[in-house]
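Record type: ASSEMBLY
Status: queued
Input:
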Amino acid sequence: MIASLFDLTLCLLILAAAGAAVFGRAAFMAVVFFIVYGILIAIAWLRLGAIDVALAEAAIGAGLTGVLLLAALARITRRIDAPEPSTGPDRTTLATALASLVIASAIAFAFLTLPEPQGLQERVAENLADAGAENPVTAVLLNFRGWDTLLESIVLLAALLGIWTLARDEAWGGRAGPRHVTRPGGVLAQFGRVLPPIGLLVGIYLVWAGSKQPGGAFQGGTVLAAVWIVTIMAGLMQAPRVADRALRAALVIGPVIFLALAVAGVVAGAFLVFPPVHAGWLILAVEAVLTLSIAVTLAMLVFGPPEEEEKP
Amino acid sequence: MSDLFTIVMTASGLVFFAAGTLGLIRFPDTHSRLHALTKADNLGLGLIALGLAVQVPGLADLFKLVLIWALAILAAGATAQLVARIAAPADLGEEPQSPPDETGDGETRRT
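Status: finished
Output:
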């Protein structure tokens, strides 16, 4: 009774937050409610027992996307003296609404015409011994459906390239984003010193635990990215130069090694297949390099394009 | 006995959260609202954590609970300071000294 009351309240809150995010007048309000929405969704996943998804949603959906949106908002308001949106729906709004409606209908149609779900849980459980990971979610993400994860990591890189194209020519190669200077010994500088040790521990633990229990490269990578972002925003470190070779190596090493292993799998039988004997350490290795690449890519997404080439 | 303790503690924690939320909505300026919010975070969450502490199965879980509380206090305290610093000139009826930047903290100066 109490549990269903909780779920019902949660659903209503999710709908309310989504509504406020979409229909909110001010852009800042929309972003804040989007973050609230992400956190509520994470709780909903938790209630459904999908702890991996809840972790990912809280870290990426609410946390990182929220920061990205706030940064984007700051850039927009800095460049444009925000014109008040017109009261009536204009063409863009109508076109967006129409496109959303079509996509929503297509998804609804696809969902409703699905055959009676058999569920893949049993098949995953049957083959778990060959997967090299005890956590079924990790087994699916890195082995049975490695495709998705491989492509996702490449999509992140593409997103970063998209952001880098916003750089002006003379700033290219310089440090990513604005330079942050804080008062030494001030609140933010202290905060930036206390948080990273705990964040490093949590991030690495999430990756390491991912093969047996909820956690993994994306969740751990996001926490590690957050640690880096906090350190740089606190002015304790500077963002790397986008031309830095070590940085670029860190960005691509995850997808490259994943892809190399996938191709090597052809020798053993098929593309993207790990031999069961070696699957355990292979998955751990892929997770480790993927975590590095994901963490660096996500942090660089937040830092943004290089803005000023430093004068020597 | 421990159940009763949990109920009393979490209930009083919720009272602080409710009061803090009320203050956030009703108080006139940023500093008063921050005052209301930080009370909710510190006392409300602290009381709830205290109430739940007698329910945890092991020491490891107790440690996690304390860590969550400590991190929330740290984050709330730090952000409250930063928000207050940004809001200070506006609340005193002065012009802001520097435009707020994209980190949104009062200490950062873009160079």
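Annotation: The two ends of chain B are 59 Å apart (CA to CA).
Annotation: DSSP finds three helices and one strand in chain B.
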